[in-house]
Amino acid sequence: MASVGYVKAQQMRFEQDLPLQSGAVLRDYSLTVETYGTLNADRSNAVLVCHALNASHHVAGVYEGQARSEGWWDNLVGPGKPLDTDRFFVIGVNNPGSCFGSTGPMDTNPATGQPYGADFPVVTVEDWVDAQARVVERLGITQLAAVLGGSLGGMQALCWTLRYPDRLRHCVAVATAPNLSAQNIAFNEVARRAIVTDPDFHGGHFYAHGVVPKRGLRVARMIGHITYLSDDSMEAKFGREMREGGIGYSTQDIEFQIESYLRHQGDKFSEYFDANTYLLITRALDYFDPAKQHGGDLTRAFQVARDKKFLLVSFTTDWRFSPTRSREIVKALVDNRVDVSYAEIDAPHGHDAFLLDDPRYHGVMRAYFDRIADEPVVTA
Amino acid sequence: MASVGYVKAQQMRFEQDLPLQSGAVLRDYSLTVETYGTLNADRSNAVLVCHALNASHHVAGVYEGQARSEGWWDNLVGPGKPLDTDRFFVIGVNNPGSCFGSTGPMDTNPATGQPYGADFPVVTVEDWVDAQARVVERLGITQLAAVLGGSLGGMQALCWTLRYPDRLRHCVAVATAPNLSAQNIAFNEVARRAIVTDPDFHGGHFYAHGVVPKRGLRVARMIGHITYLSDDSMEAKFGREMREGGIGYSTQDIEFQIESYLRHQGDKFSEYFDANTYLLITRALDYFDPAKQHGGDLTRAFQVARDKKFLLVSFTTDWRFSPTRSREIVKALVDNRVDVSYAEIDAPHGHDAFLLDDPRYHGVMRAYFDRIADEPVVTA
């Protein structure tokens, strides 16, 4: 299957304040956006793709002259792919607070003339959805055919149906949850402590010191990575395999291949990811809890989304956002007699499965997007 | 039920080198030991209790004048308790490399006159068992009634049956595994990286700098703690409960109760646990793999223990050392037609369950130790 080919990101500047859930506002910000495919005449074929922690607006295609620059969901999005850019106009938006082009902690705080650092306002899933809604508006789209996301992106897709139910027809939420469990929050908190207690963090104002809290970022990424993979896939891929040369009786050198892999992941991540962004995004994950304002009743939370259509997908070996969590969402939707499809894919790869191209998974996605493309659009 | 009451630790000095698996030797070392109950006339009622990461020789009883000084397995060991000190003579030994009295990284290296620090020789489960065997010998005991341990202690109990099969009759191994999985090693490695990359670690020679790598120890303990608890028990105990005052929109302050709990655990641990000991003990866990020298065949590994008797216990919600791992051991024993009892306890507390006094669990332990106490001892 073909790729969408060379793509270019565009910068959209917003001079109107973005009011945030915390009561703060984000002033004079810009968002980085990519689009693929062609918006049709009645502007009814747009699909917004929401990203998770370590991704961006760059969903598909490659950048000219940049080797290995494939978008993070390139296997799903493109001409002839499950989310077919010959039929859909696909939009990727980098969320504010991220570190891939949109206004974030490393940018200048207009109030101080210095980088925001730790003073970047705390953003929530709701805030991101509000920011995305402005992008969609600016693109001249009144109603999205669908909002799609995996993991934290799935939370944003769900949030769209609650916040802007009139502005989308379908929600496709993959490997996600109605909120984080205590264990999920616990892993986030350990990662944050690793970053915040790194002496190079300087209370979040490390830019001014010309350093990066790489030690903390490495540990944070290593912890995260363990939770993305299933126990079984880690066992199958690494098991107890040792480095070449066998046992070296060392507590600090690499002895097992899994150690080498994790250290490599940590090192890579610490080279490009912003520490303040890590804190912000994990906090947005922690806070997301649409049932909360309905006394913990998820069914009541989804009442407002009653005439939307949903696809939920989960993966059997995902212990970060297990199928049980997706089933909670499905139950709340069924309680509301919502049109919901649910696929539980028997895949060995854990949470990471949502980024891979398992044929059963992609088959489900293709069928669902084909249905969206084929259905008649009733314009109001 | 009564406690064993006031207890005192004793120091045993060993001038004969302890040869280690690595090829190094431990010179002129001492081990801290406690005993409870009375050794009977034919010296047949001794039970050795092996400790895991964060425990010691202080298995039961309290220290006079020290509040809250109960031994770590006080609910199991005492007069009338499942491991009944009215019938058994119970021995606790602090393993070398630990930080609770036996020779460890903070002690003086006789070769340099400086604290060992990172130069303390890497010790293995086999080395610990060898050290314990010398203690048992010095106590004048030719054959132990049983060796008991949970988690890493269970590995030591298993190792006794392979290394000194003639010196024990029973092995009681709780919440343990025949080796660590890739995921287990991964968690250990992240914890070690947090410690080693803490600037206060100074390559393991922090004693000379008058500092302690507390940041790393805190993160290590927080990670460990997540793996000791079950997802469900964390959910039941903390869920998404927030600190008093509700949401504060902060990435660095405590927002959720689970964060407060984990930080507290990390802080406490960093006050008393030695960073080099943490590295050593997690490495001993990583290395333990009795099947390895038999081409990965655990059944062949246990051939030598064919006439021993075993009790294995696991807990349904233990995801660190899941029942599956205990069943691997049971299978290897059954393959060898060994006398093995196995109990899988439906307990909600995860790995920590082995330290709690679930009545079904303690019922199984009591029944098994009663059987040991009642069986005739055939002296060779």
TrEMBL record, chains A, B:
Homodimer. GO terms for molecular function: homoserine O-acetyltransferase activity. Residues 45-357 form the AB hydrolase-1 domain. The keyword Nucleotide-binding does not apply. It is found in: Cytoplasm. Its EC number is 2.3.1.46. This is Homoserine O-succinyltransferase. Transfers a succinyl group from succinyl-CoA to L-homoserine, forming succinyl-L-homoserine.
